[in-house]
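Severity: low
Component: inverse-folding endpoint
Summary: output formatting inconsistent between runs
Steps to reproduce: submit the following C-alpha cells with default settings.
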C-alpha cells in the first residue's frame, strides 16, 4: 500500500518582495515536510523569512516559485477561493495575540469557523463545548474574552483553531504573550491536543525551552530551511 501523502510539504518555495532598491529575495528554495502528529519548532531570527514561510504554508500568500502541497494536493497557486476552501477544511492558525471576537462568547468564537465551513449549528455547538472542556474551560463557555484570563483566552484560540479538525496547525508564538507558568501549561495542552488528534504542527517560537519539547527544530538560513 502506498504511503499517504504528508499533511504539508513545501517544495523549493521561493518568495521575493519588490522594494525601492529592487527585488528582495526572502525564501530561496525552501523545503519542509510535516508528518501527521509531528510538532516542529521553527526558530529563526527576525527578518529571516519566518512569517513569510508561515504565510506560504498557510496559503495566505502564493510562492513565486516552487509549490505548497496540502495532503498531496498542489495548493500554493490555486485561486483565492480555492485556497480559502482548503484553509477552512485543512488548516488551523494560532497567533501570539488570541484575536478572539470580543463581542462573542468563548463558545461562539469556537462555533463560528465551524458554521463558516458548513457544519450544522447543533454539531458545531457540541464540538465547541467538547473542545473547551478539554482545555479546562467547562463552565466558562458563555464568558466573553474580556472576562477571561490571558491563558484562558489563548486556550479558546487554540480550541477555535482545532474546531474544524484540521490536518495542519500553524502557530506563531502561541504562548509569547503569557507569563512563564501559564505559557508552560497552555503549551503542554496544545501539544497534547495536537498529538491526540494526529495533527501536523509548525510552531514558530523564540523560546528555546518550548522548542526543545517539540519533535524537531528547524531554522532559516540564506532563505532555506535547515535543521537547527
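Observed output (run 2 of 3):
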Amino acid at each position: 500500500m502506498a504511503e499517504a501523502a504528508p499533511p504539508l510539504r513545501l517544495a523549493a518555495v521561493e518568495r521575493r518582495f519588490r522594494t525601492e532598491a529592487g527585488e528582495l529575495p526572502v525564501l530561496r528554495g525552501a523545503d519542509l515536510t510535516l508528518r501527521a502528529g509531528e510538532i516542529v519548532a521553527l526558530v529563526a531570527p527576525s527578518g529571516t523569512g519566518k512569517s513569510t514561510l508561515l504565510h506560504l504554508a498557510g496559503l495566505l500568500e502564493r510562492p513565486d516559485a516552487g509549490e505548497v502541497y496540502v495532503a498531496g494536493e498542489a495548493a500554493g497557486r490555486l485561486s483565492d477561493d480555492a485556497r480559502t476552501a482548503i484553509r477552512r477544511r485543512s488548516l488551523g492558525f494560532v497567533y501570539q495575540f488570541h484575536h478572539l471576537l470580543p463581542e462573542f462568547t468563548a463558545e461562539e468564537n469556537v462555533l463560528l469557523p465551524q458554521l463558516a465551513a458548513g457544519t450544522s449549528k447543533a454539531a458545531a455547538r457540541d464540538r465547541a463545548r467538547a473542545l473547551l472542556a478539554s482545555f479546562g474551560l467547562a463552565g466558562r463557555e458563555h464568558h466573553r474574552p474580556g472576562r477571561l484570563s490571558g491563558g484562558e483566552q489563548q486556550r479558546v484560540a487554540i480550541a477555535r483553531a482545532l474546531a474544524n479538525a484540521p490536518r495542519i496547525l500553524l502557530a506563531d508564538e502561541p504562548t509569547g504573550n503569557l507569563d512563564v507558568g501559564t505559557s508552560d501549561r497552555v503549551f503542554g495542552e496544545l501539544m497534547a491536543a495536537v498529538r491526540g488528534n494526529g495533527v501536523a504542527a509548525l510552531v514558530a517560537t523564540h523560546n528555546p525551552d518550548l522548542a526543545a519539547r517539540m519533535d524537531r527544530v528547524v531554522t532559516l538560513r540564506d532563505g532555506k530551511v535547515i535543521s537547527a
